[in-house]
Design goal:
It is globular and about 65 Å long. It is built from 21 helices and 4 strands. The strands form 2 sheets. The protein has a two-stranded antiparallel ribbon.
Amino acid sequence: MKNIKHILIILGIVVFISSSCDEGFEELNVDPNISAKDVAPKLIFGSVMPKYLSLITGSYNYAGQWAQQLALKNSEIGNYQEEDNFVRGYWQDAYVNGAVRNMIILIDMAEESGFDNYKATTLIMWVHHLSHLTDMFGDVPYFDAGRGFDVDPNFNAPEFDQQEAIYAGMINYLDEANTLLKNNNISSVENDMLYDGDMEGWRKFANSLRVRLLMRQSGKMDVSSDVATIFNDPSNYPVFTSIDDQASFVYDVGKGYNPPHYIDPNDATQSDTDKRPSEPLVNLLKGSSTPDPRLIIFVSPTAESVDGGGVLEYVGQPIGLDNDTEPLEKRSMLSINIRTFEKFSPMTYAELLFLKTEAIAKGYISGDAASTYTAGLEASFDYYAGALSVSDIPDFIASKNAYLADPANDYDPNNYMKQIGVQRWIDCVFNGFEGFSIFRRFDFEQWDEFNPAPGEAQVPTRYWYSSKTTDRNQENADEAINRAPLNGNNSKFSYVWWDAP
């Protein structure tokens, strides 16, 4: 029965893809040597990845505002007066509109047919995707999620699994993916928008992502042995070792696949003044003595200071303004450099180095925390330098060298959590999901640079369950709401397990 339902769903996916876009499928339509068994994983993999990536690249709009990375003008999200539709929309896109369901179909099919390549890579995508869901909401359907096509009626109303169990499940999946990818003869996957079929790249992503998830729960359990196993055994657990290793999606502006903040630099009629760098972001990049070299990559100077011909000023948008009355020319916007940057990385080499710095500082592994931290800074600087034109590179290098030479920017063993947290937050500035998780785990509100929206006592700490979502699975939702850590309080000011006091 499961196989029959899989085939029917696959046929539906194939019909949808074929009717909506034939580009890239011409050879499949005419080659009589390609069987349906071979075609299906390629098609489903190619349909899953855009949905999975689009949710991450669009997360600046909601999670990114709560993380105070960006500030959208007069946004109800930014001032915490948002309505139910934004959490309902994310839940709907993540669970109902194909991503989770199609990943499960692909994992099952790959396992049944012996496609270890597609099983391993989809397990990694599954973990990355579901890690965002559980980090935003807390307890969510995980182990039975996406299985509404199975005959078991329980799958139509899956349990909300506890986050601690979800994290254990995700770690196990990543370990399984690493084991599958250890086979040197494993075939490449097709329609791969992150690694273009590089299976060793996927393996490094799996183990690097595993470090992220282990460190995220380090406040709740001892993860030191697991972290040490990965960093101390690179032959069995390879991780990112350069920028080239990090997971990267490349936009194709020439074909109309534009970055979320894109403006054509050659079209003077295009503008976008609503998406703005936040005041905390700009102030941290400006620094207390030497500016961060990413300032000019992320932020444009105010139009007023440019027109004045004097010192260029960088002024971020304050958090949570109901109505910004400040003239536009007095605010900084996102720079044309970052708007036209054609790469997006769900996890960077710099992040791994900052995670490693934290592991060294906490005694999980041996090493030089200071040099590892500096290497993380350089990796982030060099990655974002890809957004600059060739003519801007000399000034960027000079700015980078000045920043690194300033003792004020040296690693501080007495303040390492703030340094690591802030640098990870800056490095993922357009990945709102990750930024919001970092904001909470490192408790950014304890620092003077970060404050709630005007009139609010605190920054939100989770997405809440929408009533229009829970009423379809009310019994299981109520069970999750009534147990710890929510304890009956399904609000944006409650906590997820790894963040609970």
